Amino acid sequence: MIRLCNSMDTEEIYQIINDAAQAYRGVIPDDRYHNPYMTIEELNQEMNDGVVFWGFEENNKLIGVMGIQDKIDVSLIRHAYVRTSQRKSGIGTKLLSHLMDLTTKPILIGTWNSADWAIRFYVKNGFRLVSPSEKNKLLTTYWNVPDRQIETSVVLCDSKWSS
């Protein structure tokens, strides 16, 4: 079941993100990976900044989460994670489809350029990579990330996006 998450879910969202983000260890640049990958304070800040999390729940337990953030003329998909033990079971696709149905705006997604599994997932679900120059512009316009993350990331867009 997909449901809207609330502040009571913060600890569980935190656990899911940090469990799933272990896949980044040794894949993304060492200077961008740390443990925990996202602190509880960073998660709370993301939520305060307008990231709305939706969760996939089974047996009253969240097993996947994905956020959506309204940015005036676009929607950003943020922090898409499924528990390691539940990967490749369709949960990410279900969450993404649900979030895509929530907005009529173009959707943008940022991820690490070395996270080839994430890029393949989004492409399989109808997204395409933007050019490197457009990526740089989008990351500085819609995200608040350091230059090093901009260097090592990609942006994907849906069919509603026109540059």
TrEMBL record:
One of its GO terms (molecular function) is acyltransferase activity, transferring groups other than amino-acyl groups. It comes from the Bacteria. Keywords: Acyltransferase, Transferase. InterPro entries: Acyl_CoA_acyltransferase, GNAT_dom. CDD domains: NAT_SF. It comes from Paenibacillus albiflavus. Residues 1-148 form the N-acetyltransferase domain. Pfam families: Acetyltransf_10 (PF13673). The keyword Nucleotide-binding does not apply. Transmembrane segments: none annotated. This is GNAT family N-acetyltransferase.
